[in-house]
Write a structure and sequence with these properties.
Transmembrane segments: 39-62, 186-206, 239-262, 282-303
Membrane topology: Multi-pass membrane protein
Domain ABC3 transporter permease C-terminal: 189-304
Domain FtsX extracellular: 77-164
Strand order of the largest sheet: 2-3-1-4
Oligomer: single chain
InterPro entries: ABC3_permease_C, FtsX, FtsX_ECD, FtsX_proteobact-type
């Protein structure tokens, strides 16, 4: 008889099961606490979301500028305008000589007639007809290999006897790179400052929730509850705030991108470019949400840890 009872007695839950149940209860309890005060929760999430949307939006702008600058960097051509008295056969010989150089990837020869046709397509046909003869020289578009010194190549091209004018935008590209590095540093500084601000918002909100439950926490401490058991619901509360703030930040970024994408595409199309604003993909959006959840968790952990150290009962 005792053997049958012993066989049918329920087994004690495993430690993993108990741990999982406690975390699931804390997750649901913290969600209920946040839903129980909707206006305060929405205000906290909105403030955090706007604070996080600013550096996130600036980071996206910098990524698009780097993408645009990368396409500019790929256009590394050096324009070599030959003198007017250089005949087409002589221009072809100069091009062949340049193609033989180790630091030159390619040379494109553009005859004066090609330049004249491009100007007519740009709407300057009447002005060109008024000039009579074609005033344009032969143009050699030299593309460096990228492995040598482009400034030195441009200087050597300018010293050629057939050269009349050399256009090389190396200095402009260097300044553009410097501005992009400065902008990236600004984004990093703003991200740190506004991230700290979001942490303070979470910490202050969780602190108010802790203050409203001070007596309950005191009873739990007298009953021997561990700091982890007391801290857990507040950590999940901070995580809920972080998740909501991440969703708000992504929504703001998406709305801004939708509002600016159309006018930017029309503007770039008017210049003959197909540049389009690039936003966050699914992977980066998920990384943003994970980061905001960790930020909320960290803010709540710092506040609850400080509170528990202050209210821990002393041994007598």
């Amino acid at each position: 008889m005792s053997t049958a009872k012993k066989a049918t007695a329920p087994s004690a839950p495993s430690r993993l099961r108990v741990w999982f149940d406690q975390h699931l209860h804390s997750l649901a309890f913290s969600a209920g606490r946040a839903a129980g005060k909707p206006w305060a929760t929405l205000l906290t999430i909105a403030v955090m979301g706007m604070a996080l949307a600013l550096p996130l939006g600036l980071s996206i702008v910098m990524d698009n500028l780097r993408h645009f600058a990368g396409s500019v960097q790929q256009s590394r051509e050096i324009n070599l305008f030959l003198r007017q008295d250089v005949a087409p056969p002589a221009a072809a010989l100069v091009a062949e000589k340049l193609r033989a150089r180790a630091d030159v990837a390619s040379v494109d020869v553009r005859a004066p007639e090609q330049g004249l046709a491009e100007l007519r397509e740009a709407g300057l046909g009447e002005a060109i007809d008024a000039l009579g003869d074609n005033p344009l020289p032969t143009l050699l578009v030299v593309t460096p290999t990228g492995q040598g010194d482009e400034s030195r190549l441009a200087t050597e091209l300018e010293a050629m006897p057939q050269a009349d004018l050399v256009q090389h935008d190396a200095l402009w590209r260097q300044r553009l790179d410097a501005w992009l590095r400065f902008g990236q540093r600004v984004v990093q500084v703003l991200s740190v400052l506004l991230g700290l601000g979001a942490l303070l918002v979470v910490g202050n909100t969780v602190r108010l929730d802790i203050q409203s439950r001070r007596e309950e926490i005191g009873v739990l401490q007298l009953l021997g509850a561990s700091d982890g058991f007391i801290r857990r619901p507040f950590l999940y509360l901070g995580a809920w705030y972080g998740l909501g703030a991440g969703v708000v930040a992504l929504a703001l970024i998406g709305g801004a991108g939708a509002a600016l994408g159309g006018p930017l595409a029309a503007l770039s199309e008017s210049y003959g470019s197909h540049f389009a604003l690039k936003g966050l993909d699914a992977l980066h959006s998920s990384m943003v949400l994970v980061g905001t959840v960790l930020m909320g968790w960290l803010g709540a952990w710092a506040v609850t840890g400080h509170f528990l150290r202050q209210t821990r009962p002393t041994e007598t």
